[in-house]
Amino acid sequence: MFTAVTGVLGGLVIIAWVVVAWASRRRQPWYLAPVALLIVALVAFDLPVWALLPIVALGAGTFTELVVGTREAPTLRTKDPDAPLSTERWAAAVAAPFRVALAEPWDVVVRPQLRRRYRKIFELEWGVVDRESLLAAVERLWEELHTGHSPDLIVDFRAATARSRDPEGRRPERTISLTPEQVERMREVTGADDSTQTVVISAYQWWKSVHLVRLACGGATLDWLSPVETQSLLRRVASDLQRRYASWRQLAEAFHGGYLLWQGGGFEEADCDRVWTALGLLTTDPASPWNMLPWDMPLERVPNDHNVPNAQPQ
Questions:
Q1: Phi then psi dihedrals of residue 77, to 5 deg
Q2: Rounded to an integer, what distance in angstroms lies between the CA atom of residue 237 and that of residue 157?
Q3: Digit-coded pLDDT (tens) for 219-267
Q4: Which structural domain, as residue segments, surrounds residue 158?
Q5: Are 113 and 212 part of one and the same domain?
Q6: CA distance 298 to 293
Q7: Can you tell me where the transmembrane regions are (predicted)?
Q8: What angle in degrees, to the nearest 10, is found between the helix axes of 209-221 and 227-244?
Q9: Residue 278 forms part of a structural domain
Q10: Could you tell me which residues come within 8 angstroms of residue 242 by beta carbon, excluding any fewer than 6 positions away?
């Protein structure tokens, strides 16, 4: 009787481990396979008491994966490192920090594992809950990017501040404080030496194009955008960015500065913001798409489809 109970308990724990390990998409939980095999062997040889220890160990490891696995440190991952160049791959690289922050492959447009996260983030950040609200958010962001002159971002290293400046005076200035780590990162990204007191990041607001990529990938993942609509939006964003910036380095400058302004700056700890950590990886890692993909690669033509979810570039 005790052997049967132990066998059922062990079976349930093994099933839970397999489900969690498969869903996590990480290698670490599969390292517990010998423990699962040990449970089966001990039960098969009618040693239920000895089987309890590996059952507890496997259960603890599964629970740990549920808690810790979702908090895996930002990691640069690629589903297909040898994939050919394409406009979609180039556009996906633009928003790579948000995928790297989750230790997810940056080069996958449709990612079913992120459906729940997309729903939560889309509603929280843009009030997007369905296809109609997604299209409306795309239109709003597109219009915002293409209306008026491009404001600059002034980074004052001595005062440890970043301040937006609109040449037309239509948008109010905004100033944020920077931590010493953020100041050092901004010096590194902009190439400013220790004697430089201020740098100006021109047209920094175009970093927000990454949100259009996020909306495209999320819309495709949630089946709110068709493949043609998704490809068209990604290609328009890529074409726009190639005209606005001259290199991945310029995008990195704008992304760093714009993201700080968007988040309010002054993180209490250097590692408390996962996207900020991911930005550092993408800027410095030789395997980063920002260091490997050619900025000026030829882009595919945008399909002439009247159902494309945004306006024509201005």
A1: -125, 145
A2: 31
A3: 999 999 999 999 999 999 999 999 999 999 999 999 999 999 998 866 6
A4: 87-292
A5: yes
A6: 12
A7: 6-23, 30-53
A8: 170
A9: yes
A10: 295, 296, 299
